Amino acid sequence: MRRRIVAAILLAIPALVWGAAGVLSRDAKLRAEPHSDAAVRGRLAAQAPVEVLERKGGWYHIKTLQSQPLDGWVRLADVRAGRNESAGVQGYLGSGRAGARDSVATTGIRGLSETDIANAQPNFAALSQLAGYSSTPADVSAHAGRLGLKSQAVALFPEDQP
Amino acid sequence: MSRRRLLICALTAALCGCASGGFDPDGALGQIAQAAGIAPKVGPEEEQKIGDTAAATLLGGAPLWDNQRAQRYVNRVGAWVAQHSSRPELSWRFGVLDNDNINAFAAPAGYVLITRALLQRLNNEAELAGVLAHEIAHVAQRHHLKAITQQHVTGYFTNLGMSALGKKYQGANDPAIQKLVGGAKQLYTLGLDRSDEYEADRIGVVLAARAGYDPYGLPAVLQTLASFKADDPALALLFKTHPRPADRLAELDVRMQDRMDAYADGALGEARFRSELQARPPDAAH
Question: Which among A92, A117, A149 has the least Cβ separation from residue B212?
Fold first, then answer.
C-alpha cells in the first residue's frame, strides 16, 4: 500500500492499470494466491468488470465490481485492460520535441508512420552517433550488477529448442 | 516427396559450403534455392551491410532522441540481455527514436531501435528488457535476413541482386544501397511472418529470464498495448505489422504458466527506470 502511495506522489499520472478498470477476457478461476495451485475463491465469467490492483509475475490481483466484490488473483491473459492512455511514465517525462503532443488531430501522426518510412532517405551518419551510445562489456556487467541481476540458465520453450 | 527432400539436402549441403561470402544468390544455385524455399545463409559482411542499411533507413525516418542518458541506459539494458542470446558476439547497438509512434524495430547485425513514445509507456526496466529481448530474438534468429532472402517479401532484393553487396560500397547514393533501402522499407511496412513474431515473443521472455529480469515484463507491455484503441494512429504501423496484442498475450500465457512462474521474482527495476529517464536532455552548454 505504501509503495502505491509513494508512486502516486512521484508521478502526476498513475502508472499502468493500477486501480484501472478492465474486464475478464474469458472465464477464469479467481485464486486466493498468485499460484496455480492456490485455492479457488470463485469462478468468474468473461466480460465481468474488474479493477486491477497490482501485478505479481504472471498474475493480476483484482477486485470484481459487483455488490459483493470478490478479491483474488487471475492470470494476465484473463484480463482485457480498459482504456488506459496514461500508461507508463510519459506524464512524468514530458515529450522529447516541442509541440509533439498537438500534432495528431491536425497533421496526423509525426514520426515513423508507414508514410514516413516510405519517404525516408537513409541516414548513415546517424549510425556512428548510435555506436557512441554503447558501453564496454565491463560497464554493461557493472550496470546489471547494480540492480542485482544474476544470469541464470533458462531453457527455451520446447518448440524453439533445436 | 522424397525426391524433393533429396534435392533440398543436396542444395543445403552445397549452400552451407558457400555460406561465408562466396555464395551468389543470383546464380543458378540461388535460383533453385529460392524455388525450393530454402533461405541461404548470408555471410557476416553481407549481414552487416544489410543491417547498416536497414538501420540507416529507419534513422532517416526519425532522429535519435536527444537524451544521452536515456540512450546510454537503453544500451546498457539491451546489451546485458543480448549477452544471453545465441549471438552475444554481435555488435549490439540500441537506440531511441524521437517520435510519437509506438513501435520497436530490429535490423540484422545487432540493431534495435525503439521509439520514445513506446519507451514512455513502459513502467520499469523489466518491461524495457522484455521489449528489447523480443527485438534481440528477431536478430538472433535472423528473421529479417530470412525475409530478405525469401522471394515473396523481396522480389525487390532478389531481382536486384544480392551480389550487388559484393561490389564496393559507395555510400548512400550507391544504387545497390538504394535497392537495399527499398527492400528494408518494404520489410518494415509489411512486417515479418506472424510466426516469427510469436517466436520472438517466446524466445524474448526466456532471454529476459536468463538476464535476471521478471520475464512477465513483455506480457505486461502487451497488456498496455491491448488497452489502446485498435485504430489509435500512434499504433497503426505496430498493429499492421504484428499479431493482435491479446493474441500474443494468450500465446505466451499458456506456455509461461508452467515454466516461467519460477522466475517471476526476477528484477523489475522500477526505481532505476524512472530515475534514468527523468533526466532532462543535456543543455547545449554541457
Answer: A149
From the candidates B84, B227, B238, which should be mutated to test the interface with A, based on the most A CB atoms within 10 A? B227
Number of Cβ pairs < 8 A linking chain A and chain B: 264
Identify the closest residue of chain A to B79 by CA–CA distance.
Answer: A140
Question: Residue A61 phi/psi, 5° resolution?
Answer: -85, 120
Q: How far is B133 from chain A (nearest CA, A)?
A: 13
Write b or e for each residue in A1-30: b if 16 or more Cβ atoms lie within 10 A of its Cβ, otherwise e: eeeeeebeeebeebbbbbebebebbeebbb
pLDDT digits (tens, 9 = 90+) for B49-95: 999 999 999 999 999 999 999 999 999 999 999 999 999 999 999 99
**Alpha helices, DSSP H, located in B141-235:** 143-149, 155-160, 175-190, 194-210, 217-226
- Contact (CB<8Å) B61/A117: yes
Identify the bridge partners of residue A29 per DSSP, sorted by sequence position: A43
* ipTM score assigned to the predicted complex: 0.80
Compute the distance between CA of residue B118 and CA of residue A90 in angstroms, rounded to an integer: 9
Q: CA of B124: which chain A residue's CA is closest?
A: A88
Q: What is the pTM of this model?
A: 0.81
The answer to whether residues B206 and B199 touch, using CB atoms and an 8 Å cutoff, is no
Nearest to B73 by CA among B88, B55, B92, B94: B94
